[in-house]
Amino acid sequence: MSSGGGITEHKVTLNDIEVHYTRAGDGPPVVLVHGLAQDGRSWEPVQRGLTKVTTYAYDLRGHGRTTVGDAQGTLAQLRDDFLAFLEQVTGPAVGVGFSLGGTVVLSAAAARPDLVRHAVVMGTSSVVGRAAAGFYAERIELFRGGDKAAQAAALRSDTAAALHNTAVDVDAVTRERVEAVGDGAGYINAATAMASLSGNPLTPELEAITPQTPVTVIGAEHDTFCPRKAADIILGAIEHAEYREVAEAGHLMLIDQPERTVDVLRQCVEK
Q: Is 61:81 a contact under the CB 8 Å cutoff?
């Protein structure tokens, strides 16, 4: 099934879930992993902008049109979903992840270097501080309740705080995020996984990523959710990693500055 403009829609059963994904382009495989409260649609500018590679954007467990299955609230489970996608759909591939998705990609690169050819992570943290852990705890409690209006208001507040470009339509972005969250089960699952990085950081595992697996860390100039300090922690753990930055962008860099972000990604994956 096609969603227009050369992007086609597909489904595959992986582990205990039915995964929805889109495919576009032609060339070596690049798998795109979205952030919390998003789905594969967030990668549309990338799928339309990168033409020398084949891009695959899948909806994470419980997000978008992917079922939630037996959600365990762990990064390991989300990592294993990603690895199953590589094993069954694409074969060894470049992994590109944003925020939560970047953490998933880094975990996979540490565990299965045979499957992750290059890890490109955007706005990503390998450890969660006290303030962020508190944020996740508040959001988990909110989404366990039934107040949809309060949930939508929280997503709008989070969206506005993650943007730098004042021309962005915050309400339109929020509507897409509300749709991606659905009944909230996938949001709770992923937020629980990220909160666990407070007491159990991913950082020590990153030392297992050898120079045979290139790593590119992409930051945004005005990112307050994952500031340069978060990138520096990853860069310190992976000596061969390189850093790139998207100017005039907040955390949601692909929404704030889509052309600049796609251009940075093009330099990373279309070599």
A: yes
